[in-house]
Amino acid sequence: MTVQIPGQSSSLDDWLCYLESVHPANIEMGLERVKHVAEQTQLLTTASKIILIGGTNGKGTTARCLESLLLAQGYSVGTYASPHLVRYNERVRINGSQLCDQDHIDAFHMLEQGRGETQLTYFEYGTLGALAIFKRYAVDYILLEVGLGGRFDATNIVTPYACVITTIDLDHKEYLGDTRELVGYDKAGIFRSNTPAIVGDLNIPHTVTDYGAQINADMVLANRDFNHIVNAQGFEWRYQNYNYEFATPAIPMQNVATALTTLAKLQLLPNEQMIRSCLSQLQVEGRFQCLSDSPKVYTDVAHNPESARYLKQKMVQLKAQGFKIHALIAMLADKDKASVIQEVSDVIDVWSCASLSGPRAEQAENLQTLVAQYTQTECFGYDNVEAALDNVLATHKDDTVLIIFGSFLTVADAIKYWQK
């Protein structure tokens, strides 16, 4: 069957449907194809300074922190993130704002004209499309979130000004391996010789530092070169001659410390008052995002053990205020569902499990079976997130907080529900 190629007057939805159809696989490891197209379309020649941001969790919040601190100083910034929650346009920001559909359409059209016979995956189109947009807008700094791993991710075709690894944990085990050492080695593949490499993980696998030393990366490591110390008011950040105290931000303090260290290393750190102002306004969609104060509802993209541990800390704080926790969970089948549920099970008073849609979706009854292995609390099952919310909110009590989590898709469904 011949696939109709969209044009510049086609809709963004038409283009996205096309991009999903032109490659037989969602993921194809390797850089040869995507680098070839980038060279053909001259996307690797840019005056922008690129900061590559890899890690299992925390990439989005670290990027948002870096973006805010750079924008506050008057720099222009392009940010590329994935996946999106509701609209594709969320993936590319210029100076903190999403772009119109036509910017993406023009970028995809240019790539389609320039790729020749080379096939690209959906993510590779998105990465090259973002680079095309950033080049067109000639931003000062590009913040590029690494999608999967590091070594063979499409983002790794660029020449970075600095490299950042936020955290290292088990996820995408079928591609990256089933130990933190294997995952860390893959993520360290974004390092470059004589280039700043900031690692925010608090227990860095030796494979990361071994590889960094082997290629002579300019490594700056958490708990060796910088640290953050949590206190009753917030946290203290220390790096070289810096010793600042800040109130608790809306994003993980560990990621704030990593972002601050990155800018300090690059001699781009704003003054202390400006940092405070930026941190006080930071909020990232889908990261313990408050959807409603009455009833009290939060949503979070936590979908692996490490992110579940962070979410548990937030739940513990709510329990300390006297609230009960009702968890609504929906996950993808290829995630470590058992570990996620186990991490949070002892702080949850009531469970609701919902099915997601799509080929990777996990069904509610399978989640209910896992919940039953770790707790004896009430557990209900629903066909989808919307049905679960209809039922849960109909009987919601003021002394209970509803936490919706488990996947980007789960959060997207929750946000769409609230937008109605």
UniProtKB/TrEMBL annotation:
Similarity comment: family membership: Belongs to the folylpolyglutamate synthase family.
Role: Functions in two distinct reactions of the de novo folate biosynthetic pathway. Catalyzes the addition of a glutamate residue to dihydropteroate (7,8-dihydropteroate or H2Pte) to form dihydrofolate (7,8-dihydrofolate monoglutamate or H2Pte-Glu). Also catalyzes successive additions of L-glutamate to tetrahydrofolate or 10-formyltetrahydrofolate or 5,10-methylenetetrahydrofolate, leading to folylpolyglutamate derivatives.
MF (Gene Ontology): ATP binding; dihydrofolate synthase activity; metal ion binding; tetrahydrofolylpolyglutamate synthase activity
Protein name in the entry: Dihydrofolate synthase/folylpolyglutamate synthase
Coiled-coil region: none
Domain of life assignment: Bacteria
Species annotation: Pseudoalteromonas byunsanensis
EC number: 6.3.2.12, 6.3.2.17
Catalysed reactions, semicolon-separated: (6S)-5,6,7,8-tetrahydrofolyl-(gamma-L-Glu)(n) + L-glutamate + ATP = (6S)-5,6,7,8-tetrahydrofolyl-(gamma-L-Glu)(n+1) + ADP + phosphate + H(+); 7,8-dihydropteroate + L-glutamate + ATP = 7,8-dihydrofolate + ADP + phosphate + H(+); 10-formyltetrahydrofolyl-(gamma-L-Glu)(n) + L-glutamate + ATP = 10-formyltetrahydrofolyl-(gamma-L-Glu)(n+1) + ADP + phosphate + H(+); (6R)-5,10-methylenetetrahydrofolyl-(gamma-L-Glu)(n) + L-glutamate + ATP = (6R)-5,10-methylenetetrahydrofolyl-(gamma-L-Glu)(n+1) + ADP + phosphate + H(+)
UniProt domain Mur ligase central: residue ranges: 53-259
GO BP term, example: tetrahydrofolate biosynthetic process
UniProt-listed Pfam families: Mur_ligase_C (PF02875), Mur_ligase_M (PF08245)
GO cellular component terms attached to this protein's record: cytoplasm
UniProt xrefs under InterPro entries: Folylpolyglutamate_synth, Folylpolyglutamate_synth_CS, Mur-like_cat_sf, Mur_ligase_C, Mur_ligase_C_dom_sf, Mur_ligase_cen
Sorted UniProt keywords: ATP-binding, Folate biosynthesis, Ligase, Magnesium, Metal-binding, Nucleotide-binding
Residue ranges of domain Mur ligase C-terminal in the record: 286-407
Enzyme class: ligase
Pathway: Cofactor biosynthesis; tetrahydrofolate biosynthesis; 7,8-dihydrofolate from 2-amino-4-hydroxy-6-hydroxymethyl-7,8-dihydropteridine diphosphate and 4-aminobenzoate: step 2/2; Cofactor biosynthesis; tetrahydrofolylpolyglutamate biosynthesis
Native organism taxonomy: Bacteria, Pseudomonadati, Pseudomonadota, Gammaproteobacteria, Alteromonadales
